[in-house]
Design brief:
The structure is a homodimer.
Chain A lengths: L7 E5 L3 H12 L3 E5 L3 H20 L5 H8 L2 E4 L2 H5 L4 E4 L5 H14 L5 E4 L10 H4 L5 E6 L7 E6 L5 H13 L3 E4 L9 H17 L5 H12 L5 H8 L1 H15 L2 H16 L23 H4 L2
Parallel strand pairs in A: 1-2, 1-4, 2-3, 4-5, 5-6, 7-8
Antiparallel strand pairs in A: 6-7
Chain lengths: 302, 302
């Protein structure tokens, strides 16, 4: 098998990440089928994808003519047999519930051809946890996207049983779809960029939980130096403060590290107040139009 | 005293940071005097400042006419009496040797008017260590710049004895010189952005010392997502791997944290090989023209 054998790409899960991932795959010339158990989710995806493309066009990462051409290569189905038929490469973006992922991988293992490469876009789980469920451990690995409206970086992370040949095919697939593959030699929870950002969240939270500086000034410092459009607290609002609390609580319990313990106490107040971030319109910032998106945010300090 | 009483700004130390800091101060309309004990260092500064301004112009952070006007407001002297006379605000950028800073602050305390505000640009030391040496603890705090060719962010960090009035004057001074002041409520080693980046270096080093991914792929991931012109390893080459080793070794000894211990062992190989970073033309990358400055660096992965 080689890269030229890949023709049909199947995205499992029609959420935000599934929608985002379909775009570079279709732009690379692949036939993309988005599968979801919910027809309603598929309808939302068909509305969401043009919005994502508009954001990419605004960021000069896509042209209108590219958008017009690629959208024709994306179809949707809630029929797993239709999705699985002749699938060459699958990318899984279902919710981060291990039992659900096991179920979906087992289901598609039975329906897909033997040759189909299985990849997962999981953010927080390791592929070795699902290698058996795929029924094809040597043809399974992580292919992990970031926010495709702002970056082309993808992590390619094998588990110990992934074959070298499949890693190379997935690397070439990433390149053909315009991505920058980060080639990991072994598993690491959080991959590469997100692993580093995890440490940024810990230090950012520690600065405010110790009352060293305000939430806004931390983000101002980050945005002012990196020129990114958001800082750690803006990103955490997007991740969800419930998720941030669970992760922080887990490491605080495990390591008893004073900074993590203090951060967990700090985040708990947000959980108790129900201000869980962007999804409920209130977290560290209020939404829509959070302060950090205001053109004068950096100057406000002045 | 108020912001309008500030007219003459004195930079102590004509090194890279002293040169950089002189530019926004002069751009803000202040008379800037750079003092250094070494006439040779002052001569180098007079060559270095136009190079820094050229980089700022290239980055669209300064216009040629601004550059032509501001350079006339910058003078140099190796005579401490001349520097100190009528000084309104001092920023200290001498080497990070505590005894040297104490000596310079004590010397200028005797020479300067009582009203002169003393600030330090130290990266790694806390202002409380030098408050007594300034002879004016209530008029002393950190005013810490980053790389002024790429950012306007400055940390304003008081020690427990700094007066609120002086903090406010220095905040207004930062604003008048085009900076984004990050207002810290108390001391924190590493300030705000650098404190977060310290955690990035630890995680980045851990990824390569555990052989998860290459140096180049860590920087590619960072640069590809943040769109910064360098990643953690490029920055560490600029800081100097001897400095990185000493800091890592210090925390490894103190905390016995496995990641820090492994990072210290990893960095020690670079120290033993004498590859200390950009200053010796070899560290994680070779200089000049390190791989990450190549326009195809991100695409090379493809």
């Amino acid at each position: 098998m080689n890269i030229n054998d890949i023709k049909k790409v199947v995205i499992l899960g029609a959420g935000t990440m599934g929608q985002q991932i379909s775009i570079p795959c279709a732009l690379g010339g692949y036939d993309v089928v988005i599968y979801d158990i919910s027809e309603d989710a598929l309808q939302k995806a068909l509305k969401g994808i043009p919005e994502i493309m508009a954001a990419m066009i605004a960021n000069k990462r896509l042209t209108q003519s590219e958008a017009d051409a690629l959208i024709k290569r994306i179809t949707t189905t809630s029929n797993p047999e239709v999705a699985a038929k002749d699938a060459d490469l699958i990318n899984e973006s279902v919710p981060e519930v291990p039992e659900l992922k096991v179920k979906v991988f087992s289901q598609f293992n039975k329906l897909c051809p033997e040759r189909t490469i299985f990849t997962t876009n999981t953010s927080s789980l390791l592929p070795s946890k699902f290698a058996d469920a795929t029924g094809r451990p040597e043809k399974f690995l992580s292919l992990h996207y970031h926010d495709t409206t702002v970056t082309d970086v993808v992590d390619i992370m094998p588990h110990p049983g992934t074959s070298k040949e499949i890693i190379e095919i997935v690397r070439q697939f990433a390149v053909k779809t315009g991505q920058i593959p980060i080639m990991m030699k072994k598993e690491n929870s959080g991959y590469v960029f997100n692993y580093m950002m995890g440490a940024v969240y810990t230090t950012a939270l520690s600065l405010v939980s110790r009352n060293v500086v305000s939430v806004e000034d931390v983000d101002r410092a980050w945005m002012g130096v990196t020129h990114m459009p958001y800082g750690p607290f803006g990103i955490m609002d997007n991740i969800g403060l419930d998720t941030m609390y669970h992760v922080t609580e887990f490491w605080a319990e495990k390591t008893q590290e004073p900074r993590q313990l203090q951060n967990a106490v700090y985040l708990k107040k947000y959980i108790e107040a129900g201000t869980l971030g962007r999804k409920v319109k209130k977290g560290f910032y209020t939404y829509p139009n959070p302060a950090y998106e205001h053109p004068d945010f950096l100057k406000q300090a002045k």
